[in-house]
Design brief:
With 151 residues, the chain is of the alpha+beta class. Helices cover 30% and strands 21% of the residues. Bound molecules: coenzyme A. The site of coenzyme A has 19 residues, from strand 4, helix 3 and helix 4.
Length: 151
Amino acid sequence: MQNLTVHRRLPDIQEFKNLRIAAEWPIPSDQQIQTALSNSLFGVVVFDHLNKLVGMGRIIGDLGIYLHIQDVIVRPDVQKTGIGSMIMKELMEFVHSVGRNETHVGLMSSKAREGFYKKFGFTERPSEKFGAGMTMIIREENHQAATRLPA
Ligand SMILES: CC(C)(COP(=O)(O)OP(=O)(O)OC[C@H]1O[C@@H](n2cnc3c(N)ncnc32)[C@H](O)[C@@H]1OP(=O)(O)O)[C@@H](O)C(=O)NCCC(=O)NCCS
């Protein structure tokens, strides 16, 4: 795709919501988004020639041992045109600028997106060495249960 502009910054709340809507991902509250963005380490946003937002990515973590890539999203109508790779290139530059020996860089791939991340050096779990990645999503209906630890 021609005439793209890449900015090394986080999206604002509305930009973030627009891309998540485009990806058909759930939309957290504005307050949650604000907290999430302001606690992020690094972000990238990409605009097309009409100055329309077409993609984003961000990194969270402790700047020492763990970095996590989140919210890599390209608008569906312009996917497979190289924008995702541009975003990942910026994110990986940041990762390599702050990562040290034994820094772990993680991400949770969406279904069927593993091939995209493999191109940037990520390996799938479970593997011979590592167990599966595991996850939990807090939802209103199970929030009470989720905060009760097993006896
Ligand atoms: C995953 C995503 C970010 C990829 O962005 P994109 O702009 O389409 O990717 P690119 O055009 O830069 O593709 C780069 C390469 O990855 C490949 N690729 C893209 N999507 C792929 C997929 N689902 N599986 C395997 N390879 C894929 C492309 O073929 C291309 O290969 P090439 O370099 O050999 O030509 C995009 O599909 C997206 O936003 N999906 C919806 C949100 C999402 O699932 N994000 C991931 C969250 S973990």
